[in-house]
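Quick one: structure tokens for this chain, please?
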Amino acid sequence: MSDLLDPFQFFTELKKDIAAAGNQSRYAAKIGVAHTTVSAVLHSDRDPSKEFLDRSGFDRLARYRRLRGGIHAPLINGMDFFTEVKKQIREAGSLTSFCARHKLPISSVSNYLNDSRRASDALVEAVGYSRLTRYRRRTVRSVAA
């Protein structure tokens, strides 16, 4: 079983943590955020920020799935997606050819390749993938006495 949680599973885990703390206000105090922030995240009025995820012990991860693979297609991580983009650029003959074929701005794709920005939705789609958000609870490692 994967340790990756889809958004529904993430909210289920968050609700368990809130219940264990007693209520939203106590949970907010425990992790050091405003209770309105917890409420907004819990009710999907606001995406959980990096700070909220850090304090609540979760990580947000981007994963990619081939569009033609259906819901059972495997998820790949960002490095594998980067490799797929590079492969398709090579197959197109050049970055310019790849961008012209998919009507993408060269600067946008170049910035992605240079790690200056994340892949645009248009690039993700051009390569034949969809981007999915997954979460993972951080493991707490205990130190042996």
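The chain has eight helices and three strands.
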